[in-house]
Specification:
single chain; mainly alpha; two-stranded parallel ribbon; 4 strands; 57% helix; globular
Length: 160
């Protein structure tokens, strides 16, 4: 959450000359409502089912840069689908998250005691992120452009 996935993904796509797709945006477009509304109205299990389907469709249809929601890796089948792809985990610490997103209630998983919940989410997910990632790029105190360049360097890719 707040690592810059969407922003960095768009920058990478532009620099590589390929399209960019964001599975969270796919879900919002298909459902016609915000992710926070899906969580509130239908619950997290329903959202995770939508997320699994969105990732599966995007991996099957899309050939450019793909940005995934932070919880996508919770699903073992999704992790298996990601295995052959050059996945990058954009990491950051809680203080950077506070600066970027304020850890406010617009993030459904951070509605109560956001700092503690963010830490707990990261403790539960970090090993999954690193499991699927070919590279880990720290985003702390870096501009999106610097992060995009670090991703290109980590994957040994050249601009288009």
């Amino acid at each position: 959450m707040g690592s810059g996935k969407s922003t960095v993904g768009a920058l990478l796509a532009e620099r590589l000359g390929v399209p960019c797709r964001d599975t969270d945006a796919d879900i919002v477009a298909a459902e016609g409502r915000a992710i926070s509304d899906i969580f509130i109205e239908d619950g997290e299990p329903h959202f995770r089912a939508l997320e699994r389907a969105a990732v599966r469709a995007a991996l099957a249809e899309h050939t450019g840069v793909l940005s995934l929601g932070g919880g996508a890796v919770l699903d073992a089948d999704t992790r298996a689908l990601l295995a052959p792809h050059p996945v990058v985990y954009l990491s950051m610490d809680v203080e950077e998250a506070v600066k970027r997103v304020g850890l406010n209630t617009a993030r459904p998983l951070l509605a109560v005691n956001p700092r503690r919940q963010w830490r707990e989410l990261m403790e539960a997910r970090r090993h999954l992120y690193t499991e699927v990632a070919r590279a880990v790029v720290a985003t702390d105190e870096r501009t999106p452009e610097e992060v995009a360049q670090a991703v290109l360097d980590a994957l040994e890719l050249k601009d288009a």
